[in-house]
Amino acid sequence: MAAVKKAGYEGEEAPVHKIRITLTSRNVRALENVCADLIRGAKGKDLKVKGPVRMPTKVLRVTTRKSPCGNGTNTYDKFEMRIHKRLIDLQSSTDVVKQITAITIEQGVEVEVTISD
Description:
Blueprint: E1 3-5, E2 13-15, E3 17-25, H1 28-44, E4 48-65, E5 76-92, H2 94-100, E6 110-116
Antiparallel strand pairs: 1-2, 3-5, 3-6, 4-5
């Protein structure tokens, strides 16, 4: 496990963890804004950042008949919901990640933080 020395502390070392931040949303614009804010904060702290990695979009489709009784011509309504996903990988201590993820997250964006050693 690697260690990083903090400025001003001679004897203490903060352990470095691999941190993966997963962002999911139906709104691409809000998702990209949150990604940009997280990366801007991480680069401001001089961290190693990989991402945002754009994962394939999940398209959930529902097809229904327009006619409520089933009679008449066979016409259908098609509805779909697109779910967009981004991954950001960081290498830092857990305290720094808490500071970075303290930004305001837009409505509809889900954030999941996974810490591995």
